[in-house]
TrEMBL record, chains A, B:
Domain HTH hxlR-type: 28-126
Location of region: Disordered: 1-24
Pfam families for this protein: HxlR
Superkingdom per UniProt: Bacteria
Keyword DNA-binding found: yes
GO terms of molecular function: DNA binding
Gene3D superfamilies per UniProt: Winged helix-like DNA-binding domain superfamily/Winged helix DNA-binding domain
Protein name from the UniProt record: Helix-turn-helix transcriptional regulator
Length: 136, 136
DNA sequence: CCGGATCCACTTTGATACTG
DNA sequence: CAGTATCAAAGTGGATCCGG
């Protein structure tokens, strides 16, 4: 990539109205989205569902370290935001299948860009943390 | 937009080893980064510093709704991760200037992609939330 | 099989007051 | 001006038990 002279397109660089609209800082869509997917499990779930639909316990086994509670909460939150679709099959033992909605699938794209950045610069971040740990 | 058949490049779509490496879910660089910038103020600070260097109280006035404590903590965290540079001028009234490091500046790019997505789909998310509120 | 409910611990954020 | 200290409140994640 062309690299360091980041042009920063998009509205994120648009001149702010002067002081940040303190009453709307909670409503900043960027922050809002980041806080949604920035939790402990959402990304993992989104990535997994991006590969194919999963059933609840399948997802549970797929992640292992997550508790039922958090898996349920995460899925509900993603469903509420229209990122995940939940379909219940009225079989004898209840069966529920989760999949990504088109909206959720579209989120995978910018998420990939951030993923690339994270992977590419994980070393830099780790180094910076080390440096500040063993600071003078 | 070409939209729905998201190709999903990058390693985020690379086949996972089968069950998610449960022991490393904490170390997933994507989640790690997202949780860093997914807090309440980091993005705001990064975006502001992306425009030009700021001094502490200048930043404080720029955001308003943030407390001194959180501004300090946010800046320290960003500095620790090598995203923000802190320069102290030993003037009579102490003066500290914060600016984005090249690393921090490079983060602005994928952040912009996510920002675009958030802005573009904020309506969809809002609608989804509404729908689930007044659900059958 | 899916997931709600309760209780508890840890983390994050915030209000206020004080300092070099 | 640029922080730090302290306390309190809220949010988040987890263990376990219970129900449809």
């Amino acid at each position: 990539m062309s690299g360091t002279h980041t042009d920063v397109p998009s509205m994120i660089s648009a001149p702010l109205p002067s002081p940040v609209p303190a009453d709307e800082h909670e409503r900043c869509p960027v922050t809002d989205v980041l806080r949604r997917v920035g939790d402990k499990w959402s990304i993992l779930v989104i990535v997994l569902l991006g590969r194919r639909p999963y059933r609840f316990n399948e997802l549970h086994r797929g992640i292992e370290a997550i508790s039922q509670r958090m898996l349920t909460r995460t899925l509900r939150a993603l469903e509420t935001d229209g990122l995940v679709h939940r379909e219940v099959f009225p079989t004898v033992p209840p069966s529920v299948e989760y999949s990504l909605t088109p909206l959720g699938r579209s989120l995978l794209v910018p998420l990939s860009a951030l993923a690339d950045w994270a992977v590419e610069h994980r070393g830099d971040i780790a180094a910076a943390r080390q440096a500040s740990t063993s600071d003078t």
